[in-house]
Design brief:
Blueprint: H1 2-24, H2 28-51, H3 55-102, E1 107-115, E2 122-131, H4 135-147, E3 156-160
Parallel strand pairs: 2-3
Antiparallel strand pairs: 1-2
Helix pairs in contact: 1-2
Length: about 160
């Protein structure tokens, strides 16, 4: 706070002195030179705090901000991917339950979703089906999971209740 008061006092004093000096000069040719010199002096006083700024610290500060923003963006993308994967898992499990119901059976499913490549959307990868259905109903449900949901039989696990 003290440094701000000192700075403002210096600017006000400089302005006062330059105005007083300009009013004391009466010759027009000399008055122009004094006005130019006093304007330059006032600019130097006003801009003098910039000479004390350590720009290397500013560079470090801004690079830290950039890294922080980048880290936050990566964390947000990872969280969004997790949320999207959980939605895919829920919707797929619901679709299997609805298909089982349409076949006249009951089933619940636990689905694991993952992205096939980095940056792609998660898709259903594996499934565990809890059901009491057997025979043709189970085969129809297994075919549905293989064809419609694109989960091969090797990644399907069946728990018969």
């Amino acid at each position: 706070m003290k440094s701000i008061q000192t700075y403002l006092l210096a600017v006000v004093c400089c302005g006062f002195l330059t105005a007083m000096l300009q009013n004391m000069i009466t010759k027009p040719s000399v008055k122009r030179i004094v006005r130019l010199a006093s304007g330059c002096f006032l600019c130097l006083v006003v801009l003098s705090p910039l000479a004390q700024v350590d720009f290397s610290q500013l560079k470090d500060y801004f690079s830290g901000l950039e890294l922080s923003a980048q880290t936050q963006a990566e964390q947000a993308a990872e969280k969004n991917a997790q949320i999207f994967a959980s939605l895919v898992e829920e919707q797929t499990a619901q679709a299997v339950a609805e298909k089982a119901e349409s076949l006249g059976a009951t089933a619940s499913a636990e689905v694991c979703a993952r992205a096939e490549t980095e940056g792609s959307y998660p898709v259903p990868y594996s499934i565990t089906v809890h059901t009491a259905c057997t025979g043709q109903t189970r085969q129809a449900l297994e075919d549905y999971i293989t064809q419609a949901l694109n989960i091969p039989a090797s990644r399907q696990r069946w728990v018969i209740q």
